[in-house]
Amino acid sequence: MMAPTSRKSTTNRERRVWQTMWGMLGSAAAIGVIGLAVGLLKARTQGDTHDFLNGMTLGLLGSLPVAMGVWLFRAYRQMDEFGQRQQERACAFAFLVSMVAIMVAFAVSSFTGVQVPLWGLYVFGMLVYSAAVVRGAVLARSGR
C-alpha cells in the first residue's frame, strides 16, 4: 500500500499561465538576442547596410517594451481574480518605485550633469516588477 502524497496537481488554469509566462520569457529572449546580433553586425558594416541594420536594431529593441506589455496583458486575462489582484499590486508597487527612481535620476542629472540612460530606468522598473511578483507568489504560497 502506497502512502498518499501531499503534492498538489496543477490545474488547467495554472498550466496556461505558466505556458504564457514561459512563452513571454522565450519571446523576449529571442527578440533580445536577435537585436544584439543585428547590433553587433551593424558595427562591422558601412553605408546603406549600416543604416538598414541601425534601423533594425532600433526597431527590434524598441518593440521589446511594447511586446512585454502585450504579453503581460495576455497573461493577466488568463488569471483568476486572486492572480489578477497580485499582478495589480505588483504593477502599482513597481510604478511607484520606478517613478521615485526617475525623480532621483532627474535630480542627479540636473545637478551633476550625469546622464542616466532611459533603458536603465526601464530595466530597473521591470526588475522591481519581477521582484514584486515573486514576493506575491511566495506570500500566496505560504498562505499569508
TrEMBL record:
The chain crosses the membrane at residues 21-40, 52-73, 93-113, 119-140. Keywords: Membrane, Transmembrane, Transmembrane helix. It comes from the Bacteria. This is DUF2178 domain-containing protein. It comes from Deinococcus irradiatisoli. The lineage of its organism: Bacteria, Thermotogati, Deinococcota, Deinococci, Deinococcales.
